[in-house]
Amino acid sequence: MKPIESIIEVHMKNRKYDNRRGFTMIEMMIVIVVIGIMAAMAAPSFLNWIPKMRLKNDAREKVNYLRQARSRAIAENSQYGVYFDFNGSRMVYFKDTDSPEWSYYAEGVDSVVGNPISNESTVAYGTCSLMGNTVIFYPNGSASTSGSLELYDVESGNSYTINVLASTGRIRLQ
C-alpha cells in the first residue's frame, strides 16, 4: 500500500492541469488577427464617411443661419438676410438697412450681424438660383426670393442642396 502522502501528491498534480484557466498564446493571436482584418475592411468606408459628415455639418450650419435670420426678422419686425460670397467662400449674416425695397446685400452699408462664416476647407458653393446670391427675410417670415444653393465637397464630390421658398420662408436641406 502506498503511503498517503504520495497519493495526495499524485492527486494534486493531476488536479493542477484539470483547472486551467485563461487563454493560450495562439488563441490570443487569432483574436488579434481577426480584429485587424475587420479594422482593415472598415477603414476605407470610414475614410469616405468623414468628408460627407464634414459637408453635412457645413450645410446644416448654413441652414441654421438662414433660419436664425428668418426668426430675427420676425422677432424684431425688420429685414434680415444672408449673403453667400462665392469669391470669398463665406456667408454673411446681415440686417438689411440700405434700400430695403431692393432686397440685396450692400457691403459696407448693411449692418453685418456677427463675423462672416467661412466654408470648410474642402466645401465649395455650387450652383445658386437665389437672386444676387442673397436671401432676405421679411417681418412676416417670407423670403425675398425662392431658390436653391448647392454645397459640394471638392474631394469626394458629395453635395447637398439648400432650398428656400419665398412665400413662406421655408428652408430645407436635401
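Second entry:
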Amino acid sequence: MREDAQGQGRPQPSGFLSRSARGAKAVWRWARRHPFAATSIYIAVVSVTFLLLPGLDRAVSALFYSPEEGFAAAGDPFLIRLRHLGPHLVRLVAIASGAVIVAKLLFPLARPVVPLSRPLFLLASLALGPGLVVNAILKDHWGRPRPNAVEYFGGDHPYVRVWQITDHCASNCSFVSGEASSSLWLVSLALIAPLTWRPAVAASALVLCLVLSAMRIAFGGHFLSDTLLSWGITFLLILAVYRVTIERPPVWLQDNVLDRALMTAGLWLRRSAARLTTAASRSGPRDLDKAR
C-alpha cells in the first residue's frame, strides 16, 4: 500500500505513549475515588517486592556507600543542616495547630481562626501516624538494623527483610523511617488548604518529602523499603483520621459541637481562674496579719 504525503499507514510512534497516558490517567482517577484501596495496594506491592527481591534494598544503599568513606553524605554539613528542616516544619505546624485550640480556650466567646476540626485533624494524624504507629510501635519493636549497622556496609548485624521482627536492634531502628513519615505528614496540609492553594501546598510538601527521605537513604540511616513503606503507612493513617475528623465526622466531632465544647471549657476555666484570684486576694491580708 502506497503511503500518502501525510504518512498514513505508518505505525504511529506516539500510539503506545498515548495509551500509556490514558491508562495512567484512568489509574489516577480510580485511586482518587478509592484512596484507601489504592494506598493499601501500594503497601502490599512494595512489601511483596522487597520480600522477593531483598537485594534491591542493598543495591540502592550501595549507591551511596564506599568501603573507604562509608556513607559519606552523612558527614556533609549542608545536608546535615537541611535534614533538620523537616522536623522544624513539623513542630511549627503542630505548635500552630495547638495554638488555635488554646486560643479558643483563652477566648471562648471569639470565633476560632479556622474550623476546629482542622487543627484537630493535624494533631491527631501526627500523633497516630509518625508518633504512635511509626515510632512507638514499628521502629521500637521490629528490630531491623539500619544500613550503616549491617555487615554488608561494614557493620556487625545481618540484613533483615521488611516486616521481619528480630532482636538485632533494641529501639529507634530502621523499619520504618520516622523522618520519611513526618515529612510525608506535611502533605496533610494540602487536604485542609483552600482549593486554589492545594496543588502548590501538595507539590511543595512532596518535594520536601522526597529530598529528606532520599537523604536518609544516602546517610545510611534507612533502606529504600523503610522509606517507601513509611510513606504508605503514614498516608493510610492520614486518610483514616481525615475521614473521621473532616470528611465524615461523628456528631461529637463536628465543628459546631467542638466549638461549643471548647467554649464551655474556656468559660469554666475563666470562672475558675476568677474564683481562685478572688480567694487569693481575700486570704492575702489575713495571712499577712497572722505573720505579724
